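Render this sequence as a predicted structure.
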Amino acid sequence: MNLALYLVWIPMLATDNESEAQRVAASAAKTGARQFYDAKRRVGIAFVEDHFQALMRDAIATLPKENPFWQRLLKHVDSPADEHPLWDAVLMFRPGVEWRERSPRPDWWAKQTAFFGGERHDSHTGMIWSSRASQGPVESDWLLEIREGLRVVAAQESK
């Protein structure tokens, strides 16, 4: 599989700053990953406006109203994207995809909605909503989700 890794840091937590992004970039330089720091959170805002507001509307239409994620989405779906840019997410694209007027539609995506990492001793580190989880977030782990995303995109690429 043809693979390129781009990491975009946006300031969402106090520790999400340019110096921390540079520190991690230096340690990951040997992997070939390209890293960027987006102080204005433009990338996260663009993906919400171009794709994730529609995904939130779709989830609201299909999830039961008693689902706690339904309530959370309802609060965010119509608010300005700069109030809740996409972050803590993995987006995968087939080779050759380019960003033009709008951000490209991901072939596969996952967004962490809760983290419980060290609190538990199983392989699930958080709640992750992904393109395969129409029922909303599921208990999962980034490694499991990324493997699934790679499998999906590789299958699409081979068509």
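Summary. Residues 42-62 form the longest helix (21 residues). The chain is about 35% helix and 20% strand.
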